[in-house]
């Protein structure tokens, strides 16, 4: 979309759009992306005020590329009003919640194109992250986003999904997500891989338990996720660390790339007492691209 360096997407920190104090604190922190929220964090009565506050905040901030906005869902009455208010300020991106499928992304693309053209913004330059599991219907369409306009990342949600299907809880007696919600996590990951975009893990509601956050973040990174949503500034450093390859991982990846480079045309090669084949090389190359090596 531009010649600027790729935006890091490890940590995505929500901040309510009707609180200057919380928006300011979020932007002053280490989050890769700050999500100013016009949806769940803002009451209906406060939405008009929040729209103006978010517009002014984005307009006056020099780091617009990392300041994104979560608008209200397309099945409600507020999305176009949200976009009309905030797009003149040229936010870094948009989060679209509670989608039903790819058609919602395509509708958003049309709306954004019109607002970009009206305000002198390059048409197509506003990227989108999509919450792809917050409605029951959306679960059947997580693999449909390949080539979808503007989409750079997919993420998932468990709370609204539980509401959508009438569940009393999304967790079992042991505190872990039930099968349906683990399925949502897997489908989001598979959908992102199919679309060739970044998979972003959902929030951890208990922002005080940073050790549990670390364990979970490291686990989903091993699974293939490349970032995570956050609801509190205290979570950001833990998330950034968990989704940043370590020096040992980088060195190992470089060694794998080097050994294949030294043996061109070989499909499998011995390494540290084992055998490496081409999928190992692919993963090593992907990790090195993550860190710009």
From TrEMBL:
Its cofactor is Mg(2+). Mg(2+) binds at residues 134, 160. Keywords: Lyase, Magnesium, Metal-binding. One of its GO terms (molecular function) is magnesium ion binding. One of its GO terms (biological process) is oxaloacetate metabolic process. The keyword Ligase does not apply. The keyword Coiled coil does not apply. Belongs to the HpcH/HpaI aldolase family. This is CoA ester lyase. It comes from Sphingomonas ginsenosidivorax.
